[in-house]
Structures are given as structure tokens and as C-alpha cells.
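User: Predict the complex.
Assistant: Input components as received:
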Amino acid sequence: MNGIQVDMKALKAGEVNLGTSIMAVSFDGGVILGADSRTTTGAFIANRVTDKLTQVHDTIWCCRSGSAADTQAVADIVQYHLQMYTVLNAEAPSTRVAAAVFQELCYANKDMLTAGIICAGYDSQYGGEVYSIPLGGSMHKQDYAIAGSGSTYIYGFCNTQYKPNMTKEDTITFIKSALTEAIKWDGSSGGVIRMVVLTKDGVERLIFYPDDYQKD
Amino acid sequence: MSLRVFPQVPYASSVPKPAISSTQVPELANHIVVSKPPAPMADALNMPSEPSSHPLESRLKNWEQTQFDLKMENLRRLFGTHEPVKRVMELEAVNASLPLYPDVLRRAEVVTGNGAPGSRTDPAREILLGRDGIVDWEDIYGGMEECPLDFHTDLERRIKI
Amino acid sequence: MPGFNFDNYQRNNFLAAKGYPIPKATSTGTTIVGCRFDGGVVIAADTRATEGDIVADKNCEKLHRISPTIWCAGAGTAADCEFVTQLMSSTLELHALSTGRKPRVVTCLTLLKQHLFKYQGHVGAYLIVAGVDPTGPRLFSIHAHGSTDVGYYLSLGSGSMAAMAVLETKWKESLTKEEAMSLCAEAIEAGIWNDLGSGSNVDMCVMEVDNPAVLYRNYRTPNERSTKEKSYKFARGTTAILKEKVRPVVDSVPFDIFEETIIKDDDKMEIDT
């Protein structure tokens, strides 16, 4: 491994895959994470109501894409780190700290991991923030981030539809319509749309069923 | 120092191929002159320390060490350099006092390098490593290396080859 | 050392490169399901063990006890399921003793997923872990690579599609214990009838809050052998004896025979169980 040419191994045989559409969007009062709910093993849907939005701290969450086992392991480790951080510093970590831990883990273990992660969170100092950590282990602070196999279909949509400082309701509608398109075109995305709204008021979970989001 | 969680797979992903034109014949190593046996193909692919290249083998072999290193690195970041230094010194003190233990408590044969974890250990080490609450294969199937399963190994051992 | 042996890895690769076929690893066909109900959780499994296309055991046990209130159903490599649950059983007991608290299902789940993740899927255990702990009834599934799922109803194994079809049609919110039991039994039966790798009987384990877990071994036996309508025994003397010759097996007996008793015992024969 020379650090430049990384042999990104395909998933190990029989591994559970999060062929995914995930996104996180920062808005006026916070940040919203969204994801589909399909996990696949080959052509078989292993779980149609998966929760790909994982809490790593009170108001810091992440969207997971890639290998289910790898991303769960990484999220567990980050969660442990942030708990440790909170205890020692007697204050909650900022979203940037959480994202930095994600990045360092993904970078240091990039030859062993298939993990694309979006880390998003709310803290009183910086408000809602979105960090994208794609496969190689780099970190990008963005206004909004999309990732996963289904995201390829919605780059144009998001680019035109996203407006800075949207309201919460507009952001929810934006994520819902973006993920609806991703689910429509991507075979390995599907199921329900899950969202997590992180604001100063804490955590709010939303769920949208196919009959609901597919009608328009 | 990095947050390495999963041991690296130590084999190279490619073998350098010398550039030769169609008129050239690649030279074969003259083993009589060099007086060295031909290197097996595996050596070109693997690190010298890894005779086999199954990815799981090195992962399992280096798992405990990697977890230990990670833990020490985390402690260093959280508390400062003194913390991992203290921990390793404690481990080494325990290792050094091992011969003084009564036989019942002495189960440690595997002790690696800098006092980092071997898997089968005595209670003091297990407590220091935080393994006193964990049961693993090694704790149940210890001592299996003494009874080889296949005939050839058995015979080799018996006539001391 | 216990565990994996990599001695023949390169030899096998060499043989494979020479064109010798690698023996195919066959995963055992299985149907296992789990379902939550009000105040508890139930898991069920079929009882067929296969070796390739041969039924190795018609009535094997696929439900394993991890702690008195935490049980798990295993699919995938039978031995891996068995030993990984035994290992977790020991660890959990040790953990419970050292903390002085009742073991939790999430603890078991985390231990299992971390263990399996270490082996990258080479320990081929696909498990449905269920149980009740101080936090209530819990139901999870784990794949061999170490990923976990939560659910109200889950199925795993080669018959999981058939079982899931039943669960998806008949599952509803807030089931009673009896409804959950018959739903799980029906899902397993779907696996038994529609999946080649699954068969024989339905085993079930019900874990209820404040009640000890109950294992229903062979809860349903839809494949009982009926008695044959006719006897197919050949009557004595069907085969004609043409010639009879008795030879002593040992020429010179090193000791004298004082007494020889021959007990006539036609139909009794020792069978290893």
C-alpha cells in the first residue's frame, strides 16, 4: 500500500451492504439528516426498515453508507470517543470534533474499511454543521452533503434546489423530494425515508412511508 | 501514532514486473554462484515475516497488539504521555514478577515485546489489560498445541525432525 | 493455538491454480425467525441440519441459550453458531457476576458483533438474538460480518424469504403471546415447505417479562412419520440356503471355554443415539 493507489476492495463475499441514499442539510436553526432504509446482501433485501442514522452524541448524528459491519463498528468507536471526551472535558464535543474523529478513523484504517459517512450535528456555538467523510478518509465541511449509491442521481437536483438558510419545513421537503428521486432511480435504495432533525430543542425523528412520499 | 483499529494487511497488492523487451530473456538467478536457495514466490508477495498471505491470519495475529496500541494512543491523547508509559511499566513489572508467582496463578507463556498482550495470561496481567471479564477461545481451548491432529506432524515431532 | 489454521492456505491456492477444484463450502440451510409481542419476544427455528444435499440430522437444535432469559437462533455454519453462543454465554455470565447485574441483550449483541467483526465473516454465524432484560423485551439480528439490525419481526437463513413472506402478510402491531407464537410457527413452516435447506419440525422459545423463558422443543411436528400400512419385512426363509459351512474364527483359543450361553434376541439391537 503506497498511500496513493489504494486498493479499495469490493465488499467481502456475503457482506451486508448499505447501497444507500443518504444526505444531510444544514438550515437556519440546525441540521437535518435523511436516509433511505434498505440494506442488501447481493440481490436480497436483508432489512427494509434499517436505521442508517446513528447517534454518536446527543445532537451529533451520522449517516452511514458502505459496509454495514464496518460503519457500525466505526460509529461505535466514535460514540465511545465522544462519551470519553464529554466526561473529561465536562462539555459536549462540537460537531467538528466528532467529524475529526470519524475522519481520523476512516483515514487510518482506509485499507480495511468500506465506509462513507456524513457526520452532522448541532451545537450552540456553530449551529448546524455538515461534514462529509467519503471513502478515502478525507473530510469536507459542506452546506449540505449527499452520499451513497443513490446520490449520483440527485446531484443536479440538489444543486438547483438547495438554498442557504432554508426553514425547517422547506428543508424537510427538500430532503424528502431529493431522496424520493434517489430511491426512484437507484435499485439498492428504498423503503421508508428516515430523518433526524437536530436543533437547539434537541432531537426529532421523522419517518415517511412509500405511500406518502411516492404520491407526488 | 494513528488511530489504527483494524490491523493492516501486510502483503503487497502488486509485484514489480521488470520491463523487458521481446528480444530479451529474463535472467534466472544462478543459485550455485549466489549460493542461496531460490526465493519462493510467496516472498515476493508477502512481507518476510508473513509466511502466508491469508488476510485474516495477520489480522488475528496482530489484533490484540493493535487494540492495545490504540488504547495506549487514546490514553496518551486524553491524559498525556505519562498515562501509557505508566500502564506499560505496570505491565512490565507484572511480567518481571511472573517467576515469583505460585504455579496455580502462572498461566502466562505468551508475552510479546513491550509487555503488550499475549492472549493467555495470569490474573494480574488480565486485570491490567482489562481482560479479566472476557472469555475467549484461548481461555477454553488452551494447550491444544500439544496434541497435533494430523499424523505427519505427530511423527515429525516424535522422531524430532 | 486454538482457532483458525492457515497452514494449507498457499498449498490450496497452488492446487486451485493447477486446476484442482476447491471443495465448496456449503452453508447449512435454515429458517429462523423472531417476533416481538406485548410483554415479550419469541424466536423459532426449523430442525433440519444439512451436509451438502444430504439431511444430516432431522431433528437438530438451532435455538441456543445464552443466559436464562436471552436465547438465540442460529443460521449459517452450525458449529460456529454453537460455539460462538457458548462463548458469549460464558462471557455474559462472567460479566453478570462481576457487575452484579442481570445480563442485557444489548451487551450480548455488542459482544457478539465485536467478536464476529474481528473474524471478518470467517466465523459464519448468522444469529437472531432475543431476550428480556431489565429494559424490556429485545430482538436483534446479527450477520457474520458483524452488522446488526433491530426489528419487530426478523427472519434469517436460506428459508428467510419464505418466512418473511408470512411475517410481512400476517404481522400486525401489538400481538398477543399466542398470536406471536402461531405467527412464528407458521413462518417457520413456510420455510420447511418451501426451502430445500429447511425441514422437519418447529422449535420455539418464548421469553416473557417476569417469567422464565420457555423452550418448546418440537412445538410443531408437521413431518411425523406415519406407520406404514403394510409390513415390508421379508418372511423368514425367503432366501433359500444353498450351502452352509461354519468355520472357527480363531484356531487355537488361548483359554478354555467353561460355559457358553447364547441368548436369542431377535428384534432388540443396540442403536447409538
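The longest helix of chain B spans residues 55-79.
Let me know if you want any component modeled separately.
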